[in-house]
Protein: DUF2388 domain-containing protein
Organism: Aquipseudomonas campi
Amino acid sequence: MKHLSFTTIITALMLTGTAQATSFVVTTDALGSATVGSTDSTSDISSSFGDDKIVLAARDDAASFVASQGEIRGARLEAALQHIRQQVPQLQADDLQLAQAILVL
C-alpha cells in the first residue's frame, strides 16, 4: 500500500512539472509576440530622442514606472511622455511602451 501511494505522488509531481513547463512556454510565446509589436513602434523613439534632455532626464522615473507596472508615475516621466507625443503625434504607443523605450536610450 505504501508503494502505491509513493508511486502516485511521484506521478502527480511529474505531471505537475510538465504542466508548469507548458504554461511557461505559452506565456513566454505570448510575451514575445507582444514585445515584437512594441519594439517596432518604439525603436524610432530611441533613435529620435537619444540626446533629448527632457527624455533623458526621465530615465529614473521610467524605470520606476516599468518596475511598478504603471503604478509609479514621476513628474519627469509625465513631461517626457507629453514631449514625445507632441513631437510625434502619429505615434501609436502606450505609456508603458514609451517608458520602456526611454530606458533603452
